[in-house]
Design a protein that fits this description.
31% strand; Rossmann fold
Length: 128
């Protein structure tokens, strides 16, 4: 499941991914992302993997287009979690935000992720 957290503010979007992500999660996330980006224009994203179990086959594959039209307005995306899902979530983030600079940070280095994402953001974020 994806959640857009209350700590999102200004042009900084805070997303938490938990459990096992399915196609239905993608279908719920895309309109919410579109609305956030439309409201805030140039945006950065902090994606937190918490109790994350992976992604169902085909949920975010390259064969299934992600109907996100404003993803190019995301400047940076920091993915914070454990090493097991680095490549998978980095691919998902790059498909959602094709113009963004995407970096992975181990959960124990979340402050480095915050520092990096704040370089491109107007508002500070304190993870929930």
């Amino acid at each position: 499941m994806f959640e857009i957290l209350q700590t999102s503010s200004g042009n900084l979007l805070h997303i938490r991914a938990t459990g096992r992500l399915a196609h239905a999660d993608r279908e719920l996330l895309i309109p919410r992302l579109e609305a956030w980006i439309a409201e805030h224009q140039s945006t950065s994203c902090y994606m937190e993997l918490a109790a994350f179990d992976g992604i169902e086959i085909g949920a975010f594959s390259n064969e299934v287009p992600l109907d996100i039209h404003r993803g190019k307005e995301i400047q940076r995306c920091a993915i914070v979690g454990n090493h097991a899902w680095t490549q998978c979530m980095t691919r998902v983030a790059r498909s959602l935000f094709p113009e963004a600079e995407v970096r992975y940070f181990d959960a124990i280095r979340d402050q480095k992720a915050l520092d990096w994402i704040h370089e491109a953001s107007e508002n500070p974020l304190v993870p929930a």
